[in-house]
């Protein structure tokens, strides 16, 4: 009788395992065969972060995936919305504009097939000039100054010109990759570079090695004025970020979030979120800015609905997702 009971128990356990395995296989039946993460230009924080994140997810889930060079947040929103990319990286400002149909890439198109996955990091807005320019504050930027705002249609190019206009700066607008703009600043072809990028910015670190620079902070009044006018948050660039800084520098910032097509399978996005949120140490190995890529920061998304798969992971692990941030 005992032998029979043992056999029955073993059979029950084996059956349960087969059912679980079958369920897991069924869950994967609708998964994409591969995935691509939209990042930005090579050498920037987005490219490093996004490519490393894609590799982590691909390795953990046993599915082919990788990062792709794009034009940055605005293009990533458009490509995820249309389904040309499964995943991408964006900032909250461009996300709000895209959702409202005000994307510069597709005016009038409400990009409502874009869902948030998890918080990444804050992108500070900072200004750099050569020390011998004599520019030590925003108010000292001369009329007609040649200012590099980064790649066209990037977060920096979308918001920093408007921010400086709000502060009364008159300028000649220039675009390009950060490394190229750094070289132009050093060669005297630019007067200022207005960066919106994860810190430390490689181009600024390189400039510090080669020449003396001024990293220009916002005054308290300028910061308050910009906070009132734009979807940004107060930020302090730690003095330890750059050799040039002797103390923290006042700035503003915009949060970055990973995004996914809202129509992706819930089980797939759940597993992507699980891998990411439960391996922050490995995410920090990808890029040190991932120290803030933690579920406690999901409240920094005030724009996009979270994907149902991401919501399930957060709620299973004790994190509350506001009803207004859930997909209707």
UniProtKB/TrEMBL annotation:
It comes from the Bacteria. Pfam families: NMT1_3. InterPro entries: TRAP_TAXI. Residues 1-26 form the signal peptide. Keywords: Signal. This is C4-dicarboxylate ABC transporter substrate-binding protein. It comes from Halomonas urumqiensis. The lineage of its organism: Bacteria, Pseudomonadati, Pseudomonadota, Gammaproteobacteria, Oceanospirillales.
